């Protein structure tokens, strides 16, 4: 292949982005280009030329080698252009906030890069984009700017809701720290000139006040890493933006890809794996919002792709061969949604999401740790609550929980879509985490994750105008402390999933306020892919009597007649 290193691509404000260009050798024909941009360093991405793909939990797995397989791209007749976003790697300028949401904006830079590439003598003027995670997220920002020569995008595993990137149900998720700082198998950002958005939008006094406020939080105060970060903040600016802003609102909405998704008119292909609940939700939302031709793949578990990233390239080439090369390969004759149904381990095509024949059914929590289709007929005086006590990790390594289970199903039952857990809980502190995990348990007792849900008790406020019974919507714009001793119904959103519970299997629900970080499922996830543990010693009482009908709402798909 022909390789051009450290090519300077001019931006409208005089800044130059650094890029490496890999293209087919020995041909005078012009070729289309696939553009990849991130802050993780273009030199790291070149490891796809020398390292065989690694799957977790390989010690060589590096979570930010995500630009794609260079050799495959070039062999397929495309130029692969890998660029450092401004303020990182070998690029000029300054990056302000995640996705430059507090600065010039990565969407504008993508516009300028696309139009510059289209003018190069080796390029035929047809440009697409490539890469997962950060590389996928920025594709939506670039497409929303409508550069004339960007003909299609292919976004896999993007984080399109910026608040959801760091907070699940208001509970801080630690994975972005790994990808931004470089921890436990992630190289992190190739920092050159990076500034936090918080430093841009808040005065120095407001910034310090936010630090003081976060240090008062018992969850933070009992997590020494964050006490350290908040006292010495000028080292990890992009992570500090998440840490300092626990509420949703203007800070996250300005620059969020979801906020501009309705401006995307070019063909857009979205992919995401089941088990990455936090991105499945946003990916489906982005798919539903974009205006042009669109496709969606909901892919099988486990949730993390190989690194260097090479999965899904075959489908990507079909997509770009059609839109960039004009090859009629039948891809547009297929249904827009391809989904993998776990449990029966089969692919199926659909035309819309949610599935139109979905029946949302209640499954009630009952005494003796049972889940049944009918509610409890007796009151709390005869049906005392279940419960668990969780001490903070400062004094224990044990994670406590309470579990309910169905009897073995007598026939196969498919559940595909979104769901919810409505649970009545009394605690003896002013806040806690509520973490719900749903499992498929086979006749031998082996369980497989199906979906999860998260809610910080102080974030329980619902926006009823945006909520559905099976999809509660929490704005997360304010925190309201819990009155200790009060029984409150919490509506916990369960991330979208698809699973057939086979005859003889059981469905199991586990409720906790912390989570195991060293089980077999966690090993398949990115580094630090757990949530900030609750720092309060808390007793949880879960009521499921006649007057407190705690229950699951799950998307049952009727059998075809």
From TrEMBL:
<dbReference type="InterPro" id="IPR005674">
    <property type="entry name" value="CocE/Ser_esterase"/>
</dbReference>
<dbReference type="InterPro" id="IPR013736">
    <property type="entry name" value="Xaa-Pro_dipept_C"/>
</dbReference>
<dbReference type="InterPro" id="IPR008979">
    <property type="entry name" value="Galactose-bd-like_sf"/>
</dbReference>
<protein>
    <submittedName>
        <fullName>CocE/NonD family hydrolase</fullName>
    </submittedName>
</protein>
<dbReference type="InterPro" id="IPR050585">
    <property type="entry name" value="Xaa-Pro_dipeptidyl-ppase/CocE"/>
</dbReference>
<dbReference type="Pfam" id="PF08530">
    <property type="entry name" value="PepX_C"/>
</dbReference>
<keyword id="KW-0378">Hydrolase</keyword>
<feature type="domain" description="Xaa-Pro dipeptidyl-peptidase C-terminal">
    <location>
        <begin position="317"/>
        <end position="553"/>
    </location>
</feature>
<dbReference type="Pfam" id="PF02129">
    <property type="entry name" value="Peptidase_S15"/>
</dbReference>
<dbReference type="GO" id="GO:0016787">
    <property type="term" value="F:hydrolase activity"/>
</dbReference>
<dbReference type="InterPro" id="IPR000383">
    <property type="entry name" value="Xaa-Pro-like_dom"/>
</dbReference>
<dbReference type="InterPro" id="IPR029058">
    <property type="entry name" value="AB_hydrolase_fold"/>
</dbReference>
